[in-house]
Amino acid sequence: MVNFTDEAAIGTPYWWEALRETAAPETADLPAHVDLLVIGAGYTGLSAALAAQDCGASVAVVDAGEPGTGASTRNGGMFGAHPRLSWSRLAAQFGPGTADSLFAEAAPARDFVLDLITRHGISCDLQETGRIQLAWTRSHAQAQSRLADDIRAKSDVPIDVLDRDAMSREITTERYFGGLLFADHCAIHPAKFHRGLWRAAAQKGIAVCGNAAVSAYERSTKGFTVRTACGDITAEKIVLATNGYTTLPFRWHLARVFPLPSYIIATEELPSNLIGHLAPGRRMMVETRARHSYFRLSPDGKRVLFGGRASMRHVPLEVAARRQHETMCEIWPELEDIRLSHVWTGNTGYAFTEMPHIGEDTGLYYAMGFSGSGTVMAPYLGAKAAFRAMGDARGHTAYADTRFKRHWLHPTTKPHFLRAADLWYRTWVDTRDRMQGR
Ligand SMILES: Cc1cc2nc3c(=O)[nH]c(=O)nc-3n(C[C@H](O)[C@H](O)[C@H](O)COP(=O)(O)OP(=O)(O)OC[C@H]3O[C@@H](n4cnc5c(N)ncnc54)[C@H](O)[C@@H]3O)c2cc1C
Q1: Residue 278: which of 166, 350, 397, 173 has the closest Cα?
Q2: Would residue 428 count as lying in a domain?
Q3: Kind of pairing between the strands at 364-368 and 231-240
Q4: pLDDT > 70: what percent of the chain?
Q5: For residue 337, which of 22, 25, 77, 343 sits 20 to 30 Å off, Cα-Cα?
Q6: How far is the CA of 166 from the centre of ligand 1 (A)?
Q7: Could you give the residue ranges of the DSSP H alpha helices within 79-206?
Q8: Does residue 434 lie within any of the structural domains?
Q9: CA distance 424 to 429
Q10: 214 lines ligand 1 (CB under 6 A)
Q11: CATH no. for residue 153?
């Protein structure tokens, strides 16, 4: 049974509490013309706008809602970038050279975003916690050793394999067969990071316009005429930065990126001795099982924030909270009777390749498909997309050498397949993982 605190916020991210203390930058009026129009004001779009302005372009950013109400203020704040796929799976899809380059780009991507944070003086509770990938089965632990070898050989990312003994110093549970420690991964406050990017853009005079959903666009010899809820704007180029919230008219992208919800619960404040017992290492944690959980402490170290795929479709938040709570208690039975203060959801923008993509179609550039790992990759590839649009050499990235694929399961713009996928995962895949995880 899941219990909520009396003031529990159902549907409001825990992170938004901190934003109440500071005023948001004012949203701007829509200019009539810009060199580059960015659609979507999350990490991708704001970083793209800053990069384009750095190249000397006039820029505006439009968002369908209040800037930041997408995934960028809803996520788990686990900060680090490494391809989700193994080197061999990347090599099979894109060739060994591109796989090498994608692995090698993980460290520079992280450094780029750390520099962005420093350069703009963004205060976002950055903590150098490291992140542990938790091996759900014995075979996952064996695969982690191979992955660690590939990472050491092909990138500058520091990596350590943890056996069960080493794991007991990090987390108190019998659930995992080992872990992989990404020592240079960090924790951030995602909403403060977003607010800092928005403020940086506003201070540089970039027009960031809320409630300006794009409903249509037309190409002309000079670029684009774009219809928004705030009026029309012309732009020579566009960067599309809508990820898991992509809508029509962007049919081509909608066929390649689909909204996969992720859910997070926050506990009430817990006694410090309980927190110290459950997670002595105070790391970011993410599992290897198919419908994986990810969890961390709040920046003040007082709460557990526990995320996962309670469903692959949108379900009532009370249902999601119950499922997340059950999963959390399988790992930490000590939390059975604690109360929840928050539950919320957001759309991850999933690609069938499980990795982000960047590309262009005659002046319309895009960066999306972060597949649940976007705190680094979204601002990084957002900037790359803008540099490419401006013809700046800083736009070079191996992600441009990958193909943003369609899948026969998703023939239209609506992800109907998620209903069947949810059933499949919740019955067969979960049962398999539960058996193998014993
Ligand atoms: C619950 C959850 C947990 C996550 N945890 C992590 C984590 O711990 N670590 C990590 O690295 N990543 C995590 N992610 C992923 C990460 O949050 C995203 O990859 C990242 O925020 C994507 O940023 P974005 O700017 O591309 O998209 P978003 O922040 O989603 O912004 C897209 C914007 O586009 C706008 N938009 C859409 N259509 C239009 C239109 N037609 N006109 C105008 N605007 C439009 C939307 O309103 C929205 O504001 C998580 C995601 C979720 C949902």
Answers
A1: 173
A2: no
A3: parallel
A4: 100
A5: 77
A6: 34
A7: 87-94, 96-104, 106-119, 138-154, 164-168, 190-203
A8: no
A9: 7
A10: yes
A11: 3.50.50.60
**pLDDT, tens digit, 9 for 90 and up, residues 216-251:** 999 988 899 999 999 999 999 999 999 999 999 999
The residue contributing the CA closest to ligand 1 atom 14 is: 372
Tokens of 303: 């709460």
CA-nearest residue, atom 9 of ligand 1? 78
Beta bridge partners of 82: none
Count of structural domains within the chain = 1
Residue type, 54: D
274 CA from centroid of ligand 1 (Å): 33
Q: How far is the CA of 348 from the centre of ligand 1 (A)?
A: 6
Q: Which residue has the tokens 């951030």?
A: 188
**425 found inside a domain:** no
47 lines ligand 1 (CB under 6 A): no
Beta carbon of 75 within 6 Å of any ligand 1 atom:
yes
Coil, helix or strand at residue 24: coil
Q: What is the pLDDT of residues 284-308, one digit of tens each?
A: 999 999 889 999 999 999 999 999 9
- Pocket mutation for ligand 1, best pick of 84, 309, 375 (most atoms within 8 Å of C-beta): 375
**For 57, how many CA atoms within 13 A lie in the half-sphere containing its CB?**
29
Return the structure tokens found at 251.
Answer: 């049919």
Query: What residue numbers bound the domain in which 334 lies?
Result: 3-420
Residue whose CA lies nearest to ligand 1 atom number 49: 70
Nearest CA among 352, 372, 258, 356 for reference residue 309? 372
Tell whether ligand 1 has an atom less than 6 A from the beta carbon of residue 367. Answer: no
Write down the pTM of the prediction.
Answer: 0.96
Residue 432 lies in a domain: no
Of all protein residues, whose CA lies closest to atom 4 belonging to ligand 1?
Answer: 75
